[in-house]
Amino acid sequence: MKATLKKIFPVIFVTVVVFMAVALLSWTNSITKDKIEFQEEQQIQSMLGEMFPDMSRYAFEDDIYTIYSDEAQLGYAFLALGKGYGGNINILVGLENETTIKGISIISQTETPGLGARVSETSFVGEFAGLSIDDVALRQDGGQIDAITGATISSGAVVDAVKATAVERVKSLQEKE
Amino acid sequence: MKTASFWREFTKGIVISNPLFVLVLGLCPALAVSTSVDNALGMSVGVTFVLLGSNIIISAIRKIIPNMVRIPIFIVVIATFVTIVNLVFHAYVPSLYESLGIYLPLIVVNCIILGRAEAFASKNPLLHSIADALGISIGFMLALLIISFLRETLGTGSLSIFGARLFTLPILGEHPMAVFVLPPGAFLLMGLLLALLRRLGVIKSE
User: Fold this and answer.
1) Which residues of chain B are within 8 Å of residue A25 when distances are taken between CB atoms?
2) Is B74 in contact with B66 (CB distance < 8 Å)?
3) Across the interface, do A29 and B87 touch by the CB < 8 Å criterion?
4) ipTM
5) One pLDDT digit (tens) per residue for chain B, 206 residues
6) Per-residue DSSP letter, A46
7) Which domain holds residue B111?
8) Number of domains chain B contains
């Protein structure tokens, strides 16, 4: 009896420790969950505000944010997901109308610091402002966007995601009309 | 006697067994996040919390941990604290969470923490383990601050802390040596620092 107990004690011990860890984590999660969701929403909201300075409210429907000022409709925005060199790149894309990009912002990315991570910098994201959706491509592919030196994959991932998602969203906007 | 040994466990982590410069542990997360002083501070806070938590728990249960499952137990304890840090940073300091990126969850595999659990906390009483955790964390923070200060000033030509620009160097500000922000620069600088500290006799080879 004592020998068996000694044999299974490690198993019981690990189980107990893991249960305690899980309990602690679900408690932490329940505390931070709302705050994290709130942070992410805040981030998108402030990015929308930067993109559309006259924004007073927005509506979210079918993956598309429609931006309004007090009097008029200012444009649309939507999220795009790029497959970068080091993982997903989350992008917020603003449209002035159904053909022109208002601007883009990088919400989150895990690219190489100093190289691919520079897709977040204004010198890169600024290139998208005012472009026609058709011109969203790297210069080497006949577009208007200069890739970041040493980070062609990251640059391309952003460009491809913006273009593909923009085309898709514009199509769904046009279908609705 | 007791306070003396507490003090000794505390101070040894700062210089004589500094985790980065003497033990040369945890290089991957240290060199990866030392691109800016902000990141270095954030990483140090994360590591301090995890190390303190894991040292306390492991020291408290050290007498009942079955020897054959001790490593899995250490990892579970460490991973739990790392996940807590991850969630808390995400919820309360999102900008830091973003810039530390993947290196925050990777604290789990930081060998400083597992190393202290195995080499110290599992063999020493609670109070000493706390002193050990604090000392090692401060040593880690100091080393990281030195590296990140040099990398940020040389690599970007300026220094900013929490978004406030402190100074911009005259010539470097316009032509920064970007290599220092990149991974090769980190190794280069680390090697030079180690050589310098050894030459000055701050650290001694065993």
Assistant:
1) 80, 83-84
2) no
3) yes
4) 0.76
5) 467 788 888 888 887 778 888 888 888 778 888 888 888 898 899 999 999 999 999 999 998 888 888 999 999 999 999 999 999 998 888 888 877 877 888 888 888 899 888 888 888 899 999 999 999 999 999 999 999 999 988 887 777 777 667 777 777 777 778 788 888 888 999 999 988 988 887 766 65
6) H
7) 2-144
8) 1
